[in-house]
Write a structure and sequence with these properties.
The protein has 6 helices and 3 strands; from the N terminus they run H-H-H-E-H-E-E-H-H. With 160 residues, it is an alpha+beta fold.
Length: 160
Amino acid sequence: MSRNALYMVILLTAIWIVLRESFSIASVGAGVVVSVCCVMFSRRFIPLSKTENIRPFRLFVYLFYLLGQIYIGGVTAIGAVLFGAHVEIVEIKTHIRNNVLRTVLVNSITLVPGSVSLGLKDDTITVLWLVSKKNGPPDIDNADELLKGKLERMLLKAQR
């Protein structure tokens, strides 16, 4: 078993323990078994060779940052809907070279309320973006920073 596979088993087991709210031997053992099965099953769809250049701990930290951004985006989207909003379709460029991390970025943009990723082609992401009319015309030139900003910077740190 490779180092990344071992990290994934440990991470998935930790998530299992948190979700089960139990740290008994049976629960940890079941978590390890389920985690190993998940890693082995996912190898067919996401070969671990494509994840060799990813730092798992950075992705773990990224998860918590993303949860905060989802909350902030929700509050912002509520304000946009209440005070008037319109949609824009913008294309933004990413500097991430790893395809797995690009996919994580695209899915993260979609998870944050107020934006939906429509497509990913090479290094260009097409996004449907809910823009508040409250603050005047949208800053389309700054869409890169507003939509992916720190999400991308954190994923770049997860890339080796």
